[in-house]
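User: Batch of two.

Assistant: Item 1 of 2:
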Amino acid sequence: MIDHVSVAVRDLERAARFYEVTLAALGLSRLVTRPATVGFGKAYPEFWINLRANMAPVEEGSGVHICLRAKSSDEVDAFHAAAVRAGARSDGGPGIRPHDRVKYYAAFVVDPDGNRIEAVTFPTE
């Protein structure tokens, strides 16, 4: 249903370095680099960061929330660890999240610009 998403960042190079490390854990890499935007994906850019140099700092708890699909709980773990090493704040470590309709395994981080990024998988066992 959704073809691609984008988040605003105040420092494009800092954010590109952060997302290169973080998204690599999910099999995404930098595919497009332009003066004010960078696109990451597997076959085509699915996740974009866009320079908004004059953007006000995002108030805690009010940033964008993007959820990216992982193939396994190991990928979710790797995503979280890579993001925290790259400068993210953990906003919910890897683990099972019970839900009324489905069991899922996820981790949440807040990027250096205040965007909340999640990785999720749906374990079969």
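Item 2 of 2:
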Amino acid sequence: MLACLYALPWESLSAVRAWRGLVIGAAAGAAGTTALNAVTYLDMVARARPTSSTPQDTVEKLSEKAHIPIPGRGEARENRIAGLGPLTGLAAGVGVGALLGLACSAGWRPGRVVGGVVATVGALVGGNGPMVALGVTDPRTWAAKDWVSDIVPHLAYGVVTASVLRGLVHSR
């Protein structure tokens, strides 16, 4: 996958095409993130499961590692963390979409399946990578239901992001 992206003719990419690709990709990523969130919330409703604390735990760890304190005390600080946690997921989803859009503006034209798989893997790495790197979670310890709870929403992200990106790229 990386070899394919590396082989793209990046030197012929104009600034206008690059920005257009980033914007189109960000829009596709935003649509995919909405799908991921919808599937996650439907799972919470269906199984009556609580929300995950890993996004907030990641924000706390990032704050510690970067030596950037989260302002406030008590409830005010906790509320900021509760808002920052989901924003990290939005940033990851929109960011992965933007990168895929940039690759498309450089000439990458994956089929539906490959585009969906690349978007899914990108979202899994973009969303879970920091959590794993910071020691917030360890996928090696997850039960099967934990994997399903994580992969199914990311598949929704991948399908929607790739479909919207493909539609916007081919509508030119």
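Residues 15-55+90-170 form one domain.
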